[in-house]
């Protein structure tokens, strides 16, 4: 899993005096604005879509759309062009603009704030647009996992959009523009909202924590590794072994899962018991086999006659060494949707995993986790989706153009 949780600091109100004057003084005493956050710029155009390899932003929205009845291939192409043109404007360096016709002034004072908007296609998209001949074999339905408790109303979808930004209003503005630009071509099927730690909230950059308090994401593959692109992106020549057609060159496949964390049950465990379930120290993320957070996990290490990393520890069961090398790039947001009907926090992880072939990445790992991961007792998979995310757009192009106009 990859998830982070945090909260942005805020200046407190100054005590004493009338309420109005207190607020005014507090505003004057606030620290200098973190202008570096607002000026963060991630280009929309490129070989790959933005929002895959970049660090997760402080705010995120995941939303799926279904094409409207009667919306054909031409309508879908027009929609993707509107969306791409809108994102190109909103992510411009320096002073991004609001696309014509969508000026709500919500983000008018802000810079791009590392905004990314990523688009993907579900299986239903190909049927509705008459493009079943271009349906990738790797987009086969995910298998049923025994512990799943999926809500079909919050799963799948014809189109998927991932929005991330380091400012909440910038992220919300992008969401509203995307929804408005859908017009009569598509309607929202489901939407999920997430968050991560705000940049600058810690003294130095560090691996984030999830809502269980664990440092999470240490073993995520990194772009600097020689086999990173092969595991995450479809090669330029396509991927015959996984059935990816030429239009998917430079693209990736996103598995999206809404995973509720049973936090009340988790919090009843001692820290020592929690560390045994994960296989890492909670304080600094170091593996129980020894070292620091970045020390390679020694799955064969023994401590006092027992395995240092328990047989059902999460990092053991999820390790590539335990899954014939299966790897995926996990890029997620935490979520909190209040208190559920059971009186417990409706909170957890909006899990997004990227890979060149989900049948060789996510599926074998999840099968192993579903059957032998000690952490699974404290998780509930409540929604799921798989989407083909095409490569990036060039100047003047729109995402998916090679599919829709090929």
UniProtKB/TrEMBL annotation:
<keyword id="KW-0479">Metal-binding</keyword>
<keyword id="KW-0732">Signal</keyword>
<dbReference type="InterPro" id="IPR006314">
    <property type="entry name" value="Dyp_peroxidase"/>
</dbReference>
<dbReference type="InterPro" id="IPR011008">
    <property type="entry name" value="Dimeric_a/b-barrel"/>
</dbReference>
<dbReference type="Pfam" id="PF04261">
    <property type="entry name" value="Dyp_perox_N"/>
</dbReference>
<protein>
    <recommendedName>
        <fullName>Deferrochelatase</fullName>
        <ecNumber>1.11.1.-</ecNumber>
    </recommendedName>
</protein>
<feature type="domain" description="Dyp-type peroxidase N-terminal">
    <location>
        <begin position="49"/>
        <end position="196"/>
    </location>
</feature>
<dbReference type="InterPro" id="IPR006313">
    <property type="entry name" value="EfeB/EfeN"/>
</dbReference>
<keyword id="KW-0349">Heme</keyword>
<dbReference type="InterPro" id="IPR048327">
    <property type="entry name" value="Dyp_perox_N"/>
</dbReference>
<keyword id="KW-0575">Peroxidase</keyword>
<keyword id="KW-0560">Oxidoreductase</keyword>
<dbReference type="Pfam" id="PF20628">
    <property type="entry name" value="Dyp_perox_C"/>
</dbReference>
<feature type="domain" description="Dyp-type peroxidase C-terminal">
    <location>
        <begin position="208"/>
        <end position="392"/>
    </location>
</feature>
<comment type="function">
    <text>Involved in the recovery of exogenous heme iron. Extracts iron from heme while preserving the protoporphyrin ring intact.</text>
</comment>
<dbReference type="InterPro" id="IPR048328">
    <property type="entry name" value="Dyp_perox_C"/>
</dbReference>
<comment type="similarity">
    <text>Belongs to the DyP-type peroxidase family.</text>
</comment>
<keyword id="KW-0408">Iron</keyword>
């Amino acid at each position: 899993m990859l998830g982070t949780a945090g909260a942005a600091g805020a200046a407190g109100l100054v005590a004493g005096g009338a309420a109005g004057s207190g607020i005014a003084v507090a505003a004057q005493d606030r620290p200098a604005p973190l202008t570096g956050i607002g000026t963060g710029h991630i280009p929309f155009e490129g070989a790959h879509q933005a929002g895959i390899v970049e660090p997760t932003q402080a705010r995120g929205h995941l939303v799926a759309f279904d094409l409207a009845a009667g919306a054909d291939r031409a309508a879908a192409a027009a929609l993707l062009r509107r969306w791409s043109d809108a994102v190109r404007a909103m992510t411009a360096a320096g002073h991004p603009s609001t696309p014509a016709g969508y000026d709500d002034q919500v983000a008018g004072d802000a810079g791009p704030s590392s905004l990314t908007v990523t688009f993907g296609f579900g299986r239903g998209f190909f049927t509705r647009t008459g493009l079943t001949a271009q349906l990738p074999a790797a987009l086969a339905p995910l298998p049923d996992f025994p512990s799943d408790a999926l809500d079909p109303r919050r799963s799948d979808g014809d189109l998927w959009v991932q929005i991330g930004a380091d400012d909440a209003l910038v992220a919300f503005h992008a969401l509203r523009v995307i929804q408005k630009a859908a017009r009569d071509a598509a309607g929202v099927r489901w939407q999920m909202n997430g968050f991560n730690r705000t940049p600058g909230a810690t003294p130095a950059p560090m691996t984030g924590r999830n809502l269980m308090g664990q440092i999470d994401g240490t073993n995520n593959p990194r772009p600097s590794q020689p086999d990173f692109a092969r595991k995450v992106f479809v090669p330029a020549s396509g991927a015959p072994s996984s059935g990816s057609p030429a239009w998917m060159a430079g693209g990736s496949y996103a598995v999206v899962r809404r995973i509720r964390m049973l936090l009340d049950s988790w919090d009843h465990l001692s820290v020592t018991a929690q560390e045994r379930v994960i296989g890492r120290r909670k304080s600094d993320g170091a593996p129980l086999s020894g070292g620091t957070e970045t020390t390679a996990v020694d799955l064969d290490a023994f401590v006092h006659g027992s395995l240092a990393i328990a047989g059902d520890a999460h990092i053991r069961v999820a390790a590539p060494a335990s899954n014939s090398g299966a790897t995926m790039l996990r890029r997620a947001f935490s979520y909190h949707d209040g208190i559920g009907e059971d009186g417990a926090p409706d909170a957890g992880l909006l899990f997004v995993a990227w890979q060149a072939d989900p049948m060789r990445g996510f599926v074998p790992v999840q099968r192993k986790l579903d059957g032998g991961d000690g952490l699974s007792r404290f998780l509930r998979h409540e929604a799921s989706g798989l989407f083909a995310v095409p490569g990036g757009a060039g100047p003047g192009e729109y995402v998916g153009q090679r599919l829709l106009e090929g």
